[in-house]
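JOB MANIFEST
job_type = single_chain_structure
chain_count = 1
residues = 131
[input]
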Amino acid sequence: MPAKRPFYHASRVNEDIARELMYILKEVKDPRVSKAFVSVTKTETSSDLKYCKVYYSTMSGDDKEVKTGLYSAIGFIRHELSTRLSLRNTPELTFIKDRGIQHGARISELLKDISTAENKDTAEDPEEKKE
């Protein structure tokens, strides 16, 4: 049984793939991808480096259309990755919408609403005591 590759190798490959994908996605000519301002938030490569999950976020555009655009350009993306990175095999890419940014924005909005509600409550309390 062959020895496992060290963990640092996989993490370095993840960083390299994420960095290169950021540049490659800017070159994709599909309007579903280029107009959506797609950014790679994280990549997870399997231990054998054959598969890679690419987590992405978008600034605009329909989620289904962006994902369709990414998969229609997957041949170009993998070809560019293979020329830019010196890997034995170019990993199969799977694109996953990263909802972390949206989730964080929603939590921030809820916390803001709570703080404004508390400020209103404290502003109303002194008025009730005066009467």
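[summary]
Helices lie at 7-27, 31-34, 63-72, 74-84, 100-130.
The two ends are 83 Å apart (CA to CA).
exit_status = 0
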